[in-house]
Amino acid sequence: MAPTVSNPSMNNKPIAHIHVDNIQANLDLACDKSPGSKTMAVIKANAYGHGLELVAPRLKGMDAFAVARVAEGLALRTLGIDIPIYILQGFLGESELVQCADSQLIPMIHSTDQWQLLSATETKLKVWLKFDSGMHRLGLTEAELDMILKSPGGLSVLGVASHFANADDPSHEENHDQLDVFRTTTDQLSCEKSMANSGAILGLSASHYDWVRPGIMLYGGSSSGYPDPRLKPGMTLTAPVLAVRSVAAGESIGYGSTWRANSAARIAVLGIGYADGYPRELPPETPVVIGGERCSIVGRVSMDMVMVELPAKLEVRTGDRVEMWGNQLSIDEVAAHIGTLGYTLMSSLTARVERRLFSPPSEAKIEAGFDNSEKH
C-alpha cells in the first residue's frame, strides 16, 4: 500500500473508515458456517461503534436484526428497516412494551416481571423467551420457562434463546454443560431456538439450531481476542499528523514526563486521544502504522493527542493520516496491549470521531499526491 500523502482535503479529525463490504463478507461467512440456520445480525451499540445508519441499510442476507434496547430498535425503524428486529434485553416498563407493539419489535422476555407486565395489559405482542442455561446474567429458570409456556392467554412465543458464557473458547467444558441444559430443556418445544453467538458460530456447530446471532465477528473482531484470519476488518481508524517535532537526547515529552529520548529523535503528534475513545491506558510501544511502517506510541495518551516516535528515514508530513487500527493493524492486536478486546475499542469511539464509508483511493491520485478516501 502506498504511503498516504498530504492532500487538499486534510482535516484534524480522527476518521473511522467503515468497510461495509468487509462487514457483508463477515456476515456471509456466518451464513456459510450455519447453512441450516436463519441469521439474526446483531447491530447493537451503534453497530458496535461503526454507525448504525451507515451499516444497517447496506447489509443483505440476514433474516433479522438484533439490538440490546428498545431505543435501538426504534432507531432502526426510523432508518426504514422493515425486517424483524429482536430486542435482546426486552422491554423495561409499560411504555417500552407499547413501543415494541407499535413498532413491531420482538422483545426477548428474560424475567417474570416482564411476563407479568405483559400479562396485565391487553397488548398483543410476539415475543421470544430467554432461558438461563448457565451464564446467570439474564434469563428465566426452567420452572419459570415452563410456567410461562403453560400459561393461558394469547401469548405468542416465537422462540427460546440462551447465551454462552465461554463461546470464545470452544473447548471450554461449560459450553457443553450449557448445551446439554439447553437441549434437555427445549427439545420437546415446537418453537424456534437460538444459542449461537459469534464464537459458537465459528467453533460450536452443535449450537446453531434454528437461528444464529453473529455480533463481534461481523465487524472483524474475534471473541477470543486473537486475530482471526477468516474475518475482515469492519473499520480502519485513522488520525492526522498535527506536527513533527525534533527532540534532543535527554528531553522528555508529554504529561508526567514518562518518556525520555535516549538519543535525538523525531516525534509525530497525532490528532486523537482519549476524548475520541482512544484509550489512555494504552502503554508505550503500542503500534500504529504510518506510511506502511509500524511506529510506537511514546509518552502518555492525552485527551486530544498521541505522540509517536518516527524511524529515521520515514518521511512524514503534517496532514498525513496514520492508521490506529484496521487493514494493516488488527484491532485485536491493539486491544491486547491493554488486556482488553476489540469490542471495547470499537464501541468506545465517541461522537468526535467521524464515521465515513470507505472509498478505495485511486492509485493514480495517490501518485499525484491526492487521496480521495479523505474527501467528503
CATH architecture name of the largest domain: Alpha-Beta Barrel
- What is the ordering of alpha helices and beta strands? EHEHHEHEHEHEHEHEHEEEEEEEEEHHEH
The total of helices stands at 12
What is the radius of gyration? 24 Å
The count of DSSP E runs of length 2 or more, i.e. the number of strands, is 18
Low-confidence stretches: 1-6, 363-376
At CATH level 3, the topology of the largest domain is TIM Barrel
CATH class of the largest domain: Alpha Beta
> Sheet bearing the most strands, described?
8 strands, mixed
Q: What is the fourth-level CATH superfamily of the largest domain?
A: Alanine racemase
How would you state the average pLDDT, rounded? Answer: 92
- How far do the termini sit from each other? 22 Å
Could you explain how this protein is built, in words?
By secondary structure, the chain is of the alpha/beta class. The chain has two domains: 20-219, Alanine racemase (TIM Barrel, Alpha-Beta Barrel), CATH 3.20.20; 233-374, Lyase, Ornithine Decarboxylase, Chain A, domain 1 (Beta Barrel), CATH 2.40.37.10. It is built from twelve helices and 18 strands. The strands form three sheets. Strands 1, 10, 13, 14, 15, 16, 17 and 18 form an eight-stranded mixed sheet that branches. An eight-stranded parallel β-barrel has the order 2-3-4-5-6-7-8-9, surrounded by five helices. The longest helix has 14 residues, at 20-33. The protein starts with 14 loop residues before the first strand and ends in a 9-residue tail after the last helix. The model is unreliable at 1-6 and 363-376 (pLDDT under 50).
